[in-house]
Amino acid sequence: MIDVPREQYTMVIREMLRHENDLTNHRIMWLLIGQGFFANAYASIKSSQDSPSLLFPLVGILVTLSAFLMLYRSYQARTYLQFLGLRAKRANCRRNTCR
What we know:
By secondary structure, the chain is mainly alpha-helical.
């Protein structure tokens, strides 16, 4: 069962791409905010103690790796949506006159 008429495929895929781009932007912003937090906390602990804890750098590395994984998946999703958009455009061109 098709939920969307074929004529609207390109519009729906465009909206899905826009949503994925917004999601990627939010993920990058949260990564930057988190890294700033960890850098600030590490600097605070380093200035107050003789030997800084390794906990903050390890957590920062884990946050960065998880963000990398999420951004890579987002890249894959956008690539697939672009592929679907081109396929839908070609299908519309075959049925209608292309403009």
